[in-house]
Write a structure and sequence with these properties.
This protein is an alpha/beta fold and 228 residues long. Helices cover 49% and strands 15% of the residues. Belongs to the cytidylate kinase family. Type 1 subfamily.
Length: 228
């Protein structure tokens, strides 16, 4: 391992479970966790609250640079207001997905994301963690799941929170978001060349977490290549 602070990246499509998995992997290792998607959702929420035109790339990026954000265990605060539940609402997530291709916004958030790299280590989840934000990460995971399985998970989450959910609508929305994420010209959702693909379609959260911890253990036990 290099002398830098180690990073495990977990990228994948929406509702693949990467956020929950990242939290649990970080907890098991005693590391910091970065939910990069929350920064985009927070920007989207600020855009909605301030009535900014989402098509105004410069204005959106400016909001991102001035976000008054605090992350606490299980909590997210924006300008002194608890917004952990609000930023998980579908309309906020959809706007975040539409804002994500904005190159000015991505540049504005890049430094903030990299600042989360703190000892003893970082688990970062998102869509371009292993390809753009932390290309030197020691372990890169690309977490996938069948789109219907993901839609069913999201429906279950919403129903548990007392929010009505239509599976077919969620499925159509998820497919549209997948298309936006994978086809955008700036930092598209794609597995890094050195990423390990983990399919969680038929795995429990615990099984998915364990598979990643096993990969990390395997990485630690692998002797470095000569000259590295």
């Amino acid at each position: 391992m290099s002398g830098t602070i180690p990073v495990i990246t977990i990228d994948g499509p929406t509702a693949s479970g990467k956020g929950t998995v990242a939290q649990r992997v970080a907890s098991a290792l005693g590391w910091t966790v970065l939910d990069s998607g929350a920064l985009y959702r927070l920007t989207a929420l600020a855009v909605l609250q301030q009535g900014i035109d989402p098509a105004d790339e410069a204005a959106v990026a400016d909001i991102a640079t001035r976000l008054d954000v605090q992350f606490r265990p299980g909590e997210v605060w924006l300008s002194g207001e608890s917004v952990a539940e609000v930023i998980r609402q579908e309309h906020v997530g959809n706007l975040a997905s539409r804002l994500a291709p904005n190159p000015k916004l991505r540049a504005a958030l890049l430094g903030r994301q990299r600042a989360f790299r703190q000892a003893p280590g970082l688990v970062a989840d998102g869509r371009d963690m292993g390809t753009i934000v932390f290309p030197d990460a020691e372990l890169k995971i690309f977490l996938i799941a069948d789109v219907r399985a993901r839609a069913e998970r999201r429906a279950k989450q919403l129903i548990e929170k007392g929010i009505s959910a239509n599976l077919e609508d969620l499925l159509a929305d998820m497919r549209a978001r997948d298309a936006r994420d994978t086809e955008r010209s700036v930092a598209p959702l794609v597995a890094a060349k050195d990423a390990h693909v983990v399919d969680s379609s038929t795995l429990t959260i615990d099984q998915t977490v364990q598979s990643i911890l096993d990969l990390w253990s395997r990485f630690l036990s692998t002797p470095p290549k000569a000259g590295v």
